[in-house]
Amino acid sequence: MTYEFMVASAIGVLVGAGIYLALRARTFQVVLGLTLISYAVNLFLFASGRLVVGRPPIWDAGVSEYTDPLPQALVLTAIVITFGMTAFVVILALRSFLETGSDHVDGDKVPCDRQDGLGDAPQGDGGQETRL
Amino acid sequence: MSWAAHLTILPVLIPALAGPLALLAMLRRRVLAVGIGLASLLSLLACALALLAEAGDGTIRSYALGSWPAPFGIVLVADRLAAMMLVLTAVLALIAFSHAVLTRADRKGWHFHPLFQFQLMGLNGAFLTGDLFNLFVFFEVLLIASYGLMLHGQGAGRLKAGVQYVVVNLVGSSLFLIALGILYALTGTLNMADMGLRVAAVPAADQGLLRIGGLLLVSVFALKAAVAPLHLWLMRTYAVSTPAVAALFAIMTKVGVYSLIRVVPQVFGEGAGAAAWVPAPFLLPAALASAVIGFAGVFVARSMAEQAAYAVIGSTGTLMIAVAGWSAESLGAALYYLVHSTLAAAALFLVADVAARRRGSFGDAASPGPAFAGRGTVALMFMAAAIAASGLPPLSGFIGKLLILKSVAVLPDWGWAWGVILCTTFLGVVGFARVGSAVFWKSADCEVPPAPATRHDLAAPAIALALLAAWSVGAGWASGYAGAAAAQVLDPAQSVRAVLKDAVS
After folding, report:
1. CA dist., res. B349 & res. B464, Å (int)
2. Which residues from chain A sit within 8 angstroms of residue B147, using beta carbons?
3. Nearest chain B residue to A50, by CA
4. A3-51+67-115: CATH architecture
5. Domain extents for chain A?
6. What percent of chain B has pLDDT over 90?
7. Residue in A37, A38, A96 closest to B163 by CB
8. Cβ separation of A48 and B156 shorter than 8 Å?
């Protein structure tokens, strides 16, 4: 197994899981999915400068080969932005859940989902409370 | 360097300074915050007009940030197109700002003025930058500010739409970064002018990857521009936003169109070798579809704000039909129509707000309501805005659509373009007439709500309509300028000379 294959498959798995979660109905899962996608994007950006092992990014008199420093700067920017955005979307999702009483992305009031394995259709207020 | 040499960065710098200042002033002195915002907007307008005057003779100003030379450092590029967009942004911001202040919409939350400034910083930066990653950063700046502005005023409806808006744009940002990663890996540069030179040298084995990168980039821009099938986020977001904010958002979709116009000829233009004009075949069908969807939405909309939101999609579709021609004539027509459609959409949102404020509990719903005070004036304004948005004479929408029809007539697919533009115009007229007659003509049998204390809120939409009239009167000069801007954009060698003056000898 080469280093490239490992990085590539890690990106692929992260994107696949991220897309699956981002397509779910509830905000928490969507946020997790977006986070996974952003991890994958950061790895991808990092790899876009080619994978070089054990080389310095900054000029050095005794070195003839370098790793590309620019993708590292790009990744840093991307990490900062996605970190801030993730924090924002978490707060927004929480606020939206508290104000509208629904944590579904489409805003519909469905307290419990069968597809999430959280039990049958809602029967009464008490039953929902225990499941949530 | 003299002061004049730093003119290019001022449109980014002024709001970046005014934002924090307004934030500090907001806590105790609202009037001071409003004053800071107004001073910033007026100086932005002055800067933009100065840049417009400079760019008028065809010179391209390139400003190297930190004096790092072009392919290595970040450059700001001010050409005709960028200057035109800057002036449009400043004018639209002044209209939205004055409406927010006059209707006191800025007092419904704490951070309206700082967010407004940061929004302008992102918009101006996106119009000026000559670096793809920097474009991403400014996109994020304007998006983050827009999240805050969109939620301004709170309420369950805004939060619901806000979650969707934020999630969609986060996915868009991720795609943007993936596209940038692919393009950087293949060309080794992020400077747009430099990338345009290097794309042709990409080996044949990597052409598939290059196409994927280009198409991903274009789909991100299409998402921002709300071109079908990536338009679904727009209606709810715009319809529930505070109307003054929605009026400012009228330029947000145009940022996507601008980026397309900027990046595709520069990077994937004639000189791109095998990957030349990669996105071109997909744009026309998408544009036709969004024009149809937009004006069909205008036809069936349930409220005036929703109708205005659909009109934004429809006008973007019409605009993209012209852009998809990629000739100097069609792009010039598109740029003329771009300015018009931005102002027309803003006018529609503002008139919807004016009507909603007078109709009490009926709001801006497209159903017969009370015979409110000042109905005739508001009705006339709505009629003018509807004429502009649907493209009837005498306002500039008619001239813009005429220019588009004329310019696409020489293209092979002109039949589709003509058919869609003419049919959607008819749909739009009927849709606006339906809503207008329901709101302003018919009356429900109910109590008349009290007339508002002031009529100040009529000012901002009146300014927008007056500007539309001016844009029609000055159509000769305006379309000439737009044509020159389009010719400049379609000749990437010009900006390569201006940006890489040291590297290319």
Report:
1. 11
2. 88, 92
3. B185
4. Orthogonal Bundle (1.10)
5. 3-51+67-115
6. 69
7. A96
8. no
